[in-house]
Write a structure and sequence with these properties.
Blueprint (H helix, E strand, L loop, with lengths): L1 H29 L5 E2 L8 E2 L12 E2 L12 H11 L4 H5 L4 E9 L5 E8 L3 H12 L8 E3 L2 E13 L3
Parallel strand pairs: 3-7
Antiparallel strand pairs: 1-2, 2-3, 4-5, 4-7, 6-7
Length: 163
């Protein structure tokens, strides 16, 4: 009986340790192998992005004091995506639906770069989500940290549903 209690307690403890470790591992995978820098002056979490030439560029933050502002706000961003998305005919015919999560960087100058799929549904829907995000106009205001414009990762869910 004591062994059973010890065994279930041990399992409970190992599950409590395993879940945060798994979440951390998944987060590390979603940053596409880019190292996370945690020793910044104000404790800001940031991801380092390598340029194609292999040099490290400016820091791209994950959390900021002020997020970037899309012209008209978040509702306008979602409206733009909805109005400019085209459901791929092949996906329609095959009844493929789902939510594609796209991540991208909103740069200091309010432009968008490094558009990638974070959560995939289907290659055709993923490609359409990337296409429409790349078509987004510049953001109205950049992200700010300590009062200065900074580049920040931004994520948008795009739901493809059939009526």
């Amino acid at each position: 009986m004591k062994r059973e209690k010890q065994s279930s307690t041990l399992r409970s403890i190992s599950l409590k340790l395993l879940v945060p470790a798994a979440i951390t591992f998944i987060f590390a995978l979603t940053t596409c192998g880019k190292p996370i820098k945690s020793d910044t002056p104000a404790g800001d979490a940031s991801a380092l992005q390598s340029s194609p030439s292999g040099t490290i560029r400016d820091t791209v933050l994950v959390y900021v004091e002020e997020m970037p502002v899309f012209p008209g706000g978040d509702n306008a961003l979602l409206k733009f995506i909805g109005e400019n998305s085209i459901y791929p005919e092949t996906s329609k015919k095959n009844g493929i639906t789902g939510k594609v999560v796209v991540k991208f960087i909103v740069e200091k100058d309010c432009s968008i770069s490094d558009v990638t799929v974070l959560q995939s549904v289907d290659p055709l829907l993923d490609a359409e989500a990337i296409r429409v995000v790349k078509k987004l106009p510049r953001f109205e205001k950049p992200a700010k940290n300590h009062g200065k414009p900074v580049a920040v990762w931004y994520m948008v869910p795009i739901t493809f549903a059939l009526n």
